[in-house]
């Protein structure tokens, strides 16, 4: 059983340790060293060691299958990022992460509008990943599904150097290096800790037009300033050049899942470069009070070539087939935590203010040029769009925890979120007018939870909360597929969700069994109205409902054996009939597309500190609807993986080698779907049986 000390580096922190340097979730509290058992929320924790054990260390999807409620799928398309959703929120995202807040070391990987990405996450240096689901996520603002919080390693003595390599099917290579260490033990002025990591990944890809190269660097430097304060500098940089194979129709998938007909024709691709730096200052103001200030700044440059037919782009209102984005983002989160008691009742009170801003310069160009009467596709042509978008959010928040009795604990909190969009159009031509505009959203987000300890090893809790999602800048970008209606889709409303959850956690031997029963009712759900020609138009779909059951069991036995099991039942449906302007309607009761009704996971691992180690896992995913009409779906599938290796330890050296096979029985299946794709190109195929080998060499200075 793991125990989590937590720092006050993310919004609404309930309790903190003055010496901690991580960015843990608000609900994982230090109540005299309580564990995940006592957290009154559906939260799962996966250690960095588990993420790196016998895996390629390229995608979070490799090792998060044991988290119930989390649907994370590898699109086999590094131009579009992973498809990640929590309890059905985020499943409609065309790319990146939507409906789920992502943090790395307390710095949001989610922009102020709610759009996030996982491309900058360095698995090589992760200490732990925490996945929070349910009402508590309301305390993080613009997200309804949950929170994925990632802490990277904090350096400690002794100094270690680590080099890793992996080679797998489809010409996939990953090489990485890492150095970590510290001077002193972190309790004296001048003590320093550091972790520096870098990696390079290349692949020709499972599908045609899916080759990728990715360079990633991550660093963290902490300094003990004096007896009561610390300063931590965080740095991250990522560069990706990825081809984009796009989706396939059902007939294309069945005939040849590796093909990319439009990708080959238009040379579809994407490049991005992102660099960010963050600074966290933490100070104990007294024995009962702690101040934490986190600030960050980053820049992200993206160029994407899409498969837009020339005939479509000839409409003077159409914004082209090449997107060029330059984004600068920054923010500051400051909060104060106070621990005290009234009579015999101890309590904790945290208040803070979170401000985030992003400025985006968005340009569109034709994805073709005409040279001597010949049309060359996949080349940047004339300018067709030029605008400046500014968005920001300002969120004051407050949270309190009361230990009412030795058995009863009450948590409550609220956040008032303001999200603002402003767009200035610099491309005004005949047939394409001035599309400038602005929009601002406000919402009060309350939550509460009551926890009861039946025994020292068994807790039950009930929680409720309200969340909301504003349209992202990408969802606001288009009013029609054809381009006949230009400008931002400012008629979109934010969706609001009310969630109720009843949960139980029980310690069983050296393991933990958890169960959560939940229901979320959403108004003005943001859904895809149409997706075609490389872009998507969104609408508000009225009322939806998500209800389900999550169960997990994590057990260690016989010293070196570990078993993990998880199951999710999720019934996600429309609660009312939703009709489009063209008269087509989605009946009440239809399933939400992109959401699996059942997910199952089981793994068994033998992992001694030295010698042979081995593991096996099995994953099940039920069928997934691809459109609102529920007349196209990706079939259910079950896949199995095996791994084995040997770990050598020699004095200061260790060498861990492994080999693995994924999709052992060569199942042909769809790994993810593109929701409501207008041309029926819903399907993103997954690879058949594939292999990989890897090794990690570590030297410890002692």
What does this protein look like?
With 702 residues, this protein is mainly beta. Helix content is 4%, strand content 56%. The chain is built from 5 helices and 41 strands.
Distance separating the two termini: 29 Å
DSSP helical segment count: 5
How many β-strand stretches? 41
Instruction: Report Rg.
Output: 25 Å
Tell me the major beta sheet: 22 strands, antiparallel, barrel
Q: Low-confidence segments, ≥5 residues, pLDDT <50?
A: 1-24, 26-34
Residues in helix, %: under 10%
Strand content: over 45%
User: What's the mean pLDDT score?
Assistant: 89
Shape summary = globular
The structural class is mainly beta
Keywords, separated by commas or semicolons:
single chain, disordered N terminus, 22-stranded antiparallel beta barrel, 702 residues, 5 helices, 41 strands, mainly beta
How would you summarize this macromolecular structure in one to three sentences?
With 702 residues, this protein is mainly β.
Please write out the topology.
Blueprint: E1 42-47, H1 48-52, E2 70-73, E3 83-86, E4 97-98, E5 100-104, E6 107-108, E7 115-116, E8 126-133, E9 146-152, E10 160-168, E11 172-183, E12 192-203, E13 212-226, E14 229-243, H2 250-255, H3 261-266, E15 269-284, E16 289-305, H4 310-313, E17 322-342, E18 345-365, E19 368-371, E20 374-377, E21 383-402, E22 408-425, E23 437-455, E24 458-469, H5 473-476, E25 495-508, E26 511-523, E27 526-532, E28 535-540, E29 543-557, E30 561-574, E31 578-579, E32 585-586, E33 598-606, E34 611-621, E35 624-625, E36 633-634, E37 637-650, E38 653-662, E39 670-673, E40 683-685, E41 690-700
Parallel strand pairs: 5-9
Antiparallel strand pairs: 1-8, 2-3, 4-7, 5-6, 8-9, 10-11, 10-41, 11-12, 12-13, 13-14, 14-15, 15-16, 16-17, 17-18, 18-21, 19-20, 21-22, 22-23, 23-24, 24-25, 25-26, 26-29, 27-28, 29-30, 30-33, 31-32, 33-34, 34-37, 35-36, 37-38, 38-41, 39-40
């Amino acid at each position: 059983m793991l125990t989590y000390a937590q720092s006050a580096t993310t919004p609404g922190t309930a309790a903190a340790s003055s010496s901690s340097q991580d960015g843990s979730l608000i609900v994982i509290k230090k109540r005299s060293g309580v564990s995940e058992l006592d957290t009154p929320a559906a939260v799962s924790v996966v250690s960095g060691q588990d993420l790196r054990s016998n895996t390629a260390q390229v995608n979070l999807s490799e090792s998060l299958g044991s988290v119930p409620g989390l649907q994370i799928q590898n699109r086999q398309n590094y131009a579009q990022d992973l498809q990640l959703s929590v309890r059905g929120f985020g499943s409609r995202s065309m790319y990146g992460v939507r409906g789920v807040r992502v943090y790395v070391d307390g710095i949001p990987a989610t922009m102020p509008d709610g759009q996030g990405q996982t491309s900058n996450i360095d698995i090589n240096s992760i200490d732990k990943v925490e996945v929070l689901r349910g009402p508590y996520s309301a305390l993080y603002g613009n997200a309804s599904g949950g929170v994925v919080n990632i802490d990277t390693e904090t350096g400690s003595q002794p100094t270690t150097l680590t080099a890793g390599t992996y080679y797998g099917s489809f010409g996939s290579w990953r090489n990485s290096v890492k150095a970590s260490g510290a001077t002193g033990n972190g309790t004296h002025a001048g003590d320093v800790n550091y972790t520096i990591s870098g990696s390079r990944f290349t692949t020709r890809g499972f599908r045609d037009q899916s080759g990728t190269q990715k360079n990633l660097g991550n660093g963290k430097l902490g300094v003990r300033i004096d007896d009561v304060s610390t300063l931590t500098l965080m740095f991250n940089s990522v560069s990706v050049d990825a081809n984009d194979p796009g989706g396939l129709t059902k007939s294309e998938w069945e005939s040849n899942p590796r093909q990319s007909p439009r990708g080959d024709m238009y040379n579809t691709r994407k490049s991005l470069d992102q660099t960010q730096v963050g600074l966290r200052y933490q100070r104990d103001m007294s024995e009962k009070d702690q101040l934490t200030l986190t600030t960050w700044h980053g820049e992200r440059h993206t160029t994407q070539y899409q498969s837009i037919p020339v005939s479509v782009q000839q409409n003077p209102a159409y914004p082209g087939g090449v997107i060029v984005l330059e984004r600068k983002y920054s923010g500051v989160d400051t909060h104060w935590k106070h621990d005290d008691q009234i009579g015999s009742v101890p309590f904790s009170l945290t208040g803070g203010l979170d401000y985030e801003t992003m400025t985006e310069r968005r340009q569109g160009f034709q994805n073709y040029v005409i040279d001597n009467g010949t049309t060359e596709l996949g080349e940047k042509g004339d300018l067709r769009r030029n605008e400046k978008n500014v968005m920001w959010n300002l969120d004051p928040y407050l949270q309190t925890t009361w230990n009412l009795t030795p058995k009863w604990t009450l948590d409550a909190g609220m956040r008032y979120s303001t999200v603002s969009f402003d767009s200035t159009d610099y491309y005004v031509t005949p047939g394409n007018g001035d599309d400038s505009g602005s929009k601002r959203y406000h919402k009060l987000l309350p939550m509460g939870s009551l926890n009861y300890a039946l025994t020292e090893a068994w807790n039950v809790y009930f929680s409720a909360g309200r969340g909301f999602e504003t349209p992202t800048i990408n969802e606001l970008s288009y009013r029609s597929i054809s381009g006949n209606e230009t400008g931002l889709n400012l008629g979109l409303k934010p969706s609001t969700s009310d969630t109720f959850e009843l949960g139980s956690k029980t310690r069983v031997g050296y393991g933990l069994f958890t169960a959560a029963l939940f229901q979320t009712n959403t108004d003005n759900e943001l859904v895809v109205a149409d997706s075609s020609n490389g872009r998507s138009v969104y609408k508000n779909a009225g009322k939806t409902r998500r209800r389900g059951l999550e169960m997990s069991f994590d057990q260690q036995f016989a010293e070196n054996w570990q078993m993990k099991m998880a199951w999710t039942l999720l019934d996600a449906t429309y609660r009312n009939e939703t009709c489009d302007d063209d008269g087509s309607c989605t009946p009440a009761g239809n399933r939400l597309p992109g959401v699996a009704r059942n997910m199952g996971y089981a793994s068994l691992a033998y992992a001694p500190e030295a010698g042979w180690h081995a593991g096996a896992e099995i994953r099940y995913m039920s069928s997934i609807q691809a459109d609102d009409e529920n007349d196209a779906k990706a079939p259910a599938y079950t896949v199995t993986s095996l791994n084995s290796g040997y770990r050598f330890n020699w004095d200061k050296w260790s060498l861990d080698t492994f080999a693995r096979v994924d999709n052992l029985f060569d199942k042909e299946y769809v790994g993810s779907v593109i929701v409501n794709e207008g041309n029926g190109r819903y399907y993103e195929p997954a690879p058949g049986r594939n292999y990989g080998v890897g090794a990690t060499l570590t030297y410890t200075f002692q």
